[in-house]
């Protein structure tokens, strides 16, 4: 599947503007991590862009989130590694994250939310005004952006990435698409 097809698929299944932006943010982070780890950027991008494909459909049944989406992608013939990463990104299922892609998607998902929340409280309200230390300080404040699960973000260590480096890579990737994200 090409990116334009994946983008259409995401937009067909996700109507909420902020959720679309979230998928774009995760896609950007996954692309940056693919390059960092010398992996296939296109495949990692697809995992990021499509990871929440079933989010609106499963909003009343969070226990089904990621399972329906992964099944949908599998039926479309998407590569099993991508399907497995999408399926395992919802920690509620406690599925093993066996590939680097799955580990990256799991950790990146909540970090993008923390970075967006950090931008929104910054006086300039812009991603480009943030630096790694600003986000790291927000990470350390457990009362801030409570939905951004710190334990999941800290799972970056499963990729042999230090938290500070993970935040730096993720922030940079999101800054590169700040116009698309409206921040």
From TrEMBL:
<protein>
    <submittedName>
        <fullName>HDIG domain protein</fullName>
    </submittedName>
</protein>
<dbReference type="InterPro" id="IPR003607">
    <property type="entry name" value="HD/PDEase_dom"/>
</dbReference>
<dbReference type="Pfam" id="PF01966">
    <property type="entry name" value="HD"/>
</dbReference>
<feature type="domain" description="HD/PDEase">
    <location>
        <begin position="15"/>
        <end position="123"/>
    </location>
</feature>
<dbReference type="InterPro" id="IPR006675">
    <property type="entry name" value="HDIG_dom"/>
</dbReference>
<dbReference type="InterPro" id="IPR006674">
    <property type="entry name" value="HD_domain"/>
</dbReference>
């Amino acid at each position: 599947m090409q990116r334009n097809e994946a983008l259409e698929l995401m937009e067909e299944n996700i109507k909420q503007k902020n959720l679309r932006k979230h998928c774009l943010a995760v896609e950007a982070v996954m692309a940056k991590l693919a390059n960092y780890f010398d992996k296939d950027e296109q495949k990692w991008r697809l995992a990021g862009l499509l990871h929440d494909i079933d989010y609106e459909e499963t909003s009343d049944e969070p226990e089904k989130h990621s399972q329906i989406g992964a099944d949908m992608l599998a039926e479309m013939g998407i590569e099993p590694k991508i399907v497995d990463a999408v399926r395992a990104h919802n920690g509620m299922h406690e599925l093993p994250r066996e590939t680097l892609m799955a580990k990256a998607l799991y950790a990146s998902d909540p970090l993008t939310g923390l970075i967006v929340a950090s931008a929104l409280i910054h006086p300039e309200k812009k991603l480009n005004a943030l630096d790694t230390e600003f986000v790291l300080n927000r990470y350390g404040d457990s009362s801030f952006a409570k939905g951004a699960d710190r334990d999941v973000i800290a799972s970056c260590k499963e990729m042999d990435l230090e938290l500070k480096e993970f935040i730096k890579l993720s922030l940079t990737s999101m800054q590169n698409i700040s116009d698309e994200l409206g921040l």
